[in-house]
Queue: 2 jobs
Job 1
Amino acid sequence: MPQTELRYSSDLALDGAEILTRIEEIILQHDGGAGASKGRAYPAAAFTHTHLMATVSLLPKPHRDDAFVDALKNDVFAYLAELLPRPCWLSVDVNFSGNGYQTEFLE
């Protein structure tokens, strides 16, 4: 299950839930078997410089190669860049969880 975190300066008027839903759709366009994405959005009350940092974390799989990462990163970046006022810093990090990561749905 992919995870997306948005960390951004609170001077940005963003709809975190809407953005997370759209990023989930972008992930599924690149990997239809990725499933639902967990997402969190954190506006920062204390900050320097207007910015948004998006981190997309995935489990490593053979088909998620460098080309996959580049395409996903570029599409997430392009989507977010359309939303942001100027001037604004934008960072996108697509990464893979390591061997120490464990996730389970607890019922």
Note: Strands lie at 3-9, 38-44, 51-58, 89-96.
Job 2
Amino acid sequence: MKKFYALLPFLGLFLIACEEDDTPINTDPDPDPIVYTAGTADFSKYVAIGNSLTAGFSDNALFIDGQEASFPNMLATNFELVGGGAFQIPFMADNLGGATLQGNPILGNRLFLAFTPDGPAPTPVAGQGTTEISTKLSGPFNNMGVPGSKSYELLAPGYGSVAGVALGTANPYFARFSSSESATVIGDAAAQGASFFSLWTGANDILLYATNGGSGVDQTGNLDPSSYSRNDITDPTVFAGSLDGILQTMTANGADGVIANIPDVKDIPFFTTVPHNPVPLDEATAALVNGAYAAYNQGIVGAFAFLVGMNAISQEDADAEIAKRTISFSAGDTNAVVLIDEDLTDLTGINAALVSMRQATADDLMVLTSRTFIGTLANPLDPTSINGVAVPLADQWVLTPEEQANIENALMAYNQTIENLATAYDLAFVDANGLLNDLKTSGFRQSDGSTVTATFATGGGFSLDGVHPAPRGYAILANAFIAAINGKYGSNLPSVNPLDYTGLYIN
């Protein structure tokens, strides 16, 4: 998207009519121009470090317009008012967002809101992206945001290796602009001798677990990140050590900076859009489905009676789980989906048919991608094999309360570490967690009377992937960073106007 700049306020001329003279009189002198100052900070060399939120990722892709609308680019534009230098961005080759590795597509295109016969739907833009990962860009680059990166990966040698991308051990975005095959993100960032930096990392240490429905492992207690899978939660001690190592490196020569904490995933549209009970059934179909589940319902009663008789579980706990696992549908539009819940008591040793399934409740969070999966057929040749009804949803489609607790525990530990290190390194601190919660609960009212919210597709705060902000959302984040910087360093940088940025990109 093209850059937009804030409109300068202006004063109208007041015309005073007099009997003797109709000549307009300017009664107000021109206001003195605002003099912007950097306070105690030095913005001459700004480097931004982080993940997709720093890079300007939006609508499930990285592309030129999104990179220009990144919050670091907005900050850099303001820094120019007080001596900030050039801000180089490792631009993608086009506005499609897709990319290839040696001619083979490996990254998909960005989404846009298409109007289909079934209603508006996020749809990939047509065409093949022209970004080739193996074509190295010549740096250095001030925006060191690397989509998909976890905290400890910013310190990993070879994370920008083209050969590693082919093997699945390196990051394709960093491979495009790393200084060498063995470079680290932080090494390339520190080599620029930043006078000021921003750091926002750690979201992916939780987010990949969350967006995949908790199908990974909570690695709390495991201090060896080389043993982690992509969808695992990073151990809080590993996270703390990584963050401290990054800050030691970036502040070694006296640079000032700003750091942000991590938002709660429950506040983003990816987890707040799809209801737990979206299944419409007529009376005949509801009766048919209930008949199909009758044997299961009877079976769990018998299985728990056996466990109570063996003193393996109390009657009270058995009754509670029977109620939780009993599946029942009715005529109407708000039937809850059926899902697999691995935290239920395993009854398959008693009866192999008694898999750990139940119906969803309001405490479960359906992932955004489930909206196009629920109601499809598990077997195209069997019209009764409806996913979420006759066929329970797998773990990847929902965050259960137990999985949410894993996320919450990690988030609390990470954010406490971030706040402590902000104090220890004397940095400006941004409460991005609080900001995103405000966006969800009340929104941000704009000068034209509109309100930016976290409502999927229409709120203006988030893009169509349900995770990353839209440009207008990035502008609100930029203002939070500006406020924290001004408060810490005594600068008086102006805020940006979110209305100068779009709420959604068009095709």
Note: Residues 263 and 436 are 6 Å apart (CA to CA).
